[in-house]
Amino acid sequence: MKSNIALIGMPGSGKSTTGVILAKLLAFDFVDTDLLIQTRQQKTLQEILDSSDHLALRKIEEEEILRLQLTHHVIATGGSAVYSERGMAHLQRIAMVVFLKADYETLQLRINNFESRGIAKAADQTFRDLYLERQRLYERYAEMTIVCDGIRQERAASLIAAGYGDIA
Hints:
Layout: E1 4-8, H1 15-26, E2 29-32, H2 33-41, H3 45-51, H4 54-67, E3 73-76, H5 85-94, E4 95-101, H6 104-110, H7 127-141, E5 144-147, H8 153-167
Parallel strand pairs: 1-3, 1-4, 2-3, 4-5
Helix pairs in contact: 1-8, 2-4, 4-5
């Protein structure tokens, strides 16, 4: 049995909030890889992007994921974690990977700081471009998908906990 749960999905899908709630439900610890990156780099995600580029941030994210040696944790990943085959293979070894799926319109309402949020994207990439590009990657790696449109994070966490219990 995998002793962790890793949440993947677009920025604004609720990975961090749902992750904290889920960790409480399961009596797990919680870790957010975006916060690990910021702590280790001593920069915000946007500062990393401003001083390098989206590919550098993705590489740093991969390194943080590969460092994870945890048990009984809920792991909220950055939205671009799915670009790293090595990182995702590691997560699949140590965790049940759950895709928090939200439609484009829902995400657009939640993300009002797309240009300054620290999202690993090409300079000319729109939020819609990024959404369309990433959906197939999230679906590729997901062992469970929770459709988050129209439900609260507490409900998403309960669905994940129930599914985790079924797999365990």
